[in-house]
Amino acid sequence: MEVFPKIIELLKERNKIVATMESCTGGAVASEITNYSGASEVLKYSAVTYSNEFKIKMGVLEKTIDTYSVYSIETADNMARAISEFVNSDYGIGITGKINTPDPANDYGENDKIYVAIYDKDKKHCYHFDIEALSNISRKENKENIIKFVGEVFLNILNDDKIKTNEGEC
Questions:
Q1: Structural domain boundaries of the chain?
Q2: Most buried in the list 79, 93, 104, 106, measured by CB within 10 Å?
Q3: DSSP assignment of 50-108, as one string?
Q4: What is the pLDDT of residue 116?
Q5: For residue 24, what pLDDT is reported?
Q6: pLDDT at 166
Q7: According to the model, what pLDDT value does residue 105 have?
Q8: What is the CATH number of domain 3-168?
Q9: What is the DSSP letter of 36?
Q10: In terms of Cα–Cα distance, which of 75, 76, 86 is closest to 19?
């Protein structure tokens, strides 16, 4: 069974909702969820926040961006928590990073690192990860890899599988 239909099934069974705040993936995770029946029962709202300005408007702390950069696990954590609070969802997914492309507006951070955080409102903590973008494949293929990774990790979290992550408050 594909990962995202199983995620939708588990969320529906548990009467849970997920929301995403995505940057470099451009809403690809939310889009993937909507590819399957039942998505409207578990995904009520998501945001693509491609700029610092809109991350902050959606609840990311400006201090976090100033201290750690927009390309950091701390910002991904803030994104996941902020979107969960904005929507009052049970889970929030935050994704930020650069897929092998420099950002002239934010001249810091690695050009090939993506930061992913999944916030669990009930446990009040984040699971967070970083992923390397591959320079020998296209941006679209990198986004597909990120979507697959996020789906697998989120399914493991929903199944309470032991996954290697740095958990913490966000």
A1: 3-168
A2: 79
A3: -SHHHHHHTT--HHHHHHH-SSSHHHHHHHHHHHHHHHT-SEEEEEEE-SS---TTS--
A4: 98
A5: 94
A6: 53
A7: 66
A8: 3.90.950.20
A9: S
A10: 86
d(CA 7, CA 11): 6
Report, as ranges of residue numbers, the positions in the chain whose pLDDT lies below 50.
Answer: 1
**Residue owning tokens 């492309």:** 101
- Of how many residues is the chain composed? 170
Enter the tokens of residue 59.
Answer: 């609840």
**Position 40, amino acid:** S
Contact 77, 96 (CB under 8 A): no
> In the prediction, which pLDDT does 78 show?
97
Q: In this structure, what token pair is assigned to residue 72?
A: 């950091």
pLDDT of residue 102: 61
Instruction: Name residues whose C-beta falls within 8 Å of residue 160's C-beta, 6 or more positions apart in sequence.
Output: none
